[in-house]
Model the fold of this input.
Amino acid sequence: MPELPEVESLRRQLVHSLVGRTITSFEVGVPKLFQAGPGLSGGDLLGKTILRIGRKGKLLRWDLSDGLVLVIHLKLAGQIVHLSEDRQDLAHGGHPVPRWGFSLPHKATHVTMTFGDASTLYLTDIRQFARLRLLRTRDARRFLKDQRLGPDPLKAGFTPTYLYAALQRRSVPVKAVLLDQQVVGGIGNIYADESLWVARILPSRSARSIAEAEAKRLHLAVRRVLRYALREGVAVVPQGKAISDRPFPYCHGRAGAPCSRCGTTILKGRVAGRGTYWCPTCQIEIHARAA
DNA sequence: AACTACTCCTGGAGGC
DNA sequence: TGCCTCCAGGAGTAGT
Done:
């Protein structure tokens, strides 16, 4: 499940491997994954040069020549692998494909793109949720605006004050607010759990009940967790693997294991409709504001 | 407006 | 072994 660190890591690699390249072929095996704006089709990608690769939240944005933009969302299970002509790994990121991950293409490879240097980019997705949209610049701007994505958690717009105000407006669990892309763009299920563990806040706490000092802790925790994943992920994770495949240091995916802070067994349950992990001792329910 | 539930998908895990 | 059910979850949409 690619979240901000995975997408950003992928973006940085693609900047090196793709910018300046020209698209020479484009094939889509599962048509619904590719959507083209008015008057456009996949054929319009041919001959276009990749000028820039940006990221907004979990969205990748490729700026192409002739005023076209390719917007990619890997959703839960999308993966991109870019291989050179001699099949060397140039860039990879996203969700790994179990079992058949290393020999491309395979049956979950739904998009194949080749470039002027004879390199090939594969988009794989077991669950077929990923989406590619080819749009004209103006439509892309509107599309991204309509997403109403909140500030990037690693950038200046994401402040403790902003987070506190956002939490105050909602009565849903605090975790649901972290997952809301319109509040903050890029956090997914894994890093929401990890951030709440670091901040010692119970995921099911009503967002409104979060005190200002706690919001400040949570803000710091989000940044710490994302920066760690970004820093560690780029160098370590081999092709076919997602950053999120590494064991998480704190709580996500560690049900039944001891909390590294206090030794209490990590619990698993459902919060905001998602599998959620937490330490029942460190992340205790606090009614500080009600008292 | 705010919130909840359902939907899209397939592979893997666990029960019997 | 094989069949069944459940679970994984980002985000759009429909319903309350």
Summary: Residues 287-291 of chain A have pLDDT under 50 and may be disordered. Residues 1, 3, 58, 73-77, 127, 129, 179, 181, 188-189, 273-275 of chain A lie near DNA strand C (CB under 10 Å from a C1'). Chain A has six helices and twelve strands. The longest strand of chain A covers residues 50-56.
